[in-house]
Specification:
Blueprint: H1 2-12, H2 26-66, H3 108-112, H4 131-144, E1 157-170, E2 192-201, E3 227-230, E4 240-243, E5 247-250, E6 255-258, E7 267-268, E8 270-271, E9 277-279, E10 285-290, H5 295-302, H6 315-319, E11 325-335, H7 352-356, E12 368-376
Length: 388
């Protein structure tokens, strides 16, 4: 038995079959070649596991933040948000106030963003000054723990966007909501039932001028607020006002006006740090910051193209059940920190994952982990009325 075991060990050790022709040190040479490969593989597996753990933490943080949406209404609704605090404190958006400047401590942008107590922090925001966007953003920041946002790396950010999506039927039939003959621009939409974005919040930070998007509140796209009066069957002396686009009651002038859009905006969504700079198709940074979601992408998401095949026999019937609703989308951009860099005498440059995620290039965003989540937000639900 001993001979058999010794022979097996010799074979596994690479000893030639011929007796007496033993090549001592062969295993050592083999181990010398194999060990670096095993080490690289091990380091790669460790970094991939670390990356996966952080990604799952960020996905959960985005979900927790988005789940606050259904419970925020009234003074915490997107419409009640203090628009002065929509833009983050970055010079590219015209924010020039610094501690000590006149008006710094009383600026809504400073107070509502937690800047008055020093570095930007949710702890510096007073309870009555959170509002819709701060509440969600701070929920995300708290849930990310132990991960932290880096406020100086030009990458980390939490972006919150509110959407009002309206179920509408385009066509000239008696049951259709919008007739393309009445509003010629409505022909840009496919005929039939669908969901369109009729509002995006914050209203002062909802489009990148380089995207060439329409005004989020002007879904008919004629640069005006569309409404009309129709006979009231319940009271012939008072006509009913039918609103086709979102608006607000102007108390000062006692009139109903459409939401005013700021025009050529550079910010999309409420960006907590304002560091996430958008990129074009070539991954080059453009002069806009914030959300990655366009209105067209939101419409495509809600219209369920992957679940309702185009041209199917029941497509129109199934789309006719689409609800009008409010939606909040929470996005997290976080620069991945390599695990090995936290240990003395070790470096992430040993890891093949390091090169895949940008290497030493400080301008690369390949190392940015992106997580997002969407959830209903009833306070952003549109209540447009169409003619019966």
């Amino acid at each position: 038995m001993r001979k058999i075991m010794k022979r097996l060990i010799d074979i596994l050790d690479g000893v030639p079959a011929a007796r007496g022709d033993r090549r001592k040190g062969q295993s050592l040479v083999e181990m010398t070649f194999v060990t670096p490969l095993l080490l690289i593989m091990f380091v790669g597996l460790v970094e991939i596991g670390w990356f996966a753990q952080n990604y799952l933490n960020l996905v959960e943080a985005a979900k927790v933040g988005a789940r606050r949406g259904p419970f925020l209404n009234g003074e915490y609704s997107p419409q009640s948000w203090n628009e002065a605090a929509s833009l983050p404190p970055i010079a590219a958006l015209g924010f020039t106030l610094n501690p000590g400047d006149t008006g710094y401590d009383s600026s809504d942008r400073v107070v509502y963003r937690g800047l008055s107590g020093g570095p930007q922090s949710c702890d510096n925001i007073l309870p009555g000054e959170f509002g819709f966007f701060n509440t969600i953003a701070c929920t995300v920041v708290d849930t990310m723990d132990p991960l932290r946002l880096n406020l100086t790396n030009r990458k980390d950010d939490v972006v919150v966007s509110g959407f009002s999506v309206q179920a509408v039927k385009i066509g000239s039939g008696p049951t259709d909501d919008i007739d393309p003959d009445d509003y010629s621009s409505a022909t840009v939409y496919d005929p039939g039932s669908q969901v369109v974005v009729v509002g995006r919040w914050p209203s002062t930070a909802n489009e990148c001028y380089l995207w060439g998007e329409r005004d989020p509140f002007d879904w008919i796209e004629d640069d005006t607020m569309n409404w009309e009066y129709v006979p009231n069957p319940m009271d012939p002396t008072v006509d009913l006002r039918i609103n086709y686009e979102l608006g607000v009651w102007d108390v000062v002038n006692s009139t109903y006006v459409g939401w005013q859009d700021a025009g050529t905006e550079k910010m999309v969504g409420f960006a907590w740090t304002g560091q996430r700079q958008m990129e074009d198709a070539t991954d080059a940074r453009i002069d806009c910051w914030g959300s990655e979601w366009t209105m067209e992408e939101v419409q495509a998401l809600v219209n369920l193209p992957n679940f309702i095949p185009s041209g199917s026999s029941d497509e129109e019937e199934r789309k006719s059940y689409f609800p009008s609703q409010g939606i909040v989308i929470v996005e997290i951009f976080w620069e991945h920190n390599f695990l090995l860099d936290s240990f003395p005498l070790l470096s992430s440059t040993w890891s093949p994952v390091y090169q895949v995620m940008g290497g030493d290039d400080p301008n690369s965003t390949a190392d940015v982990v992106y997580a997002w989540a969407a959830f209903p937000a009833p306070s952003a639900e549109p209540r447009l009325v169409f003619k019966p």
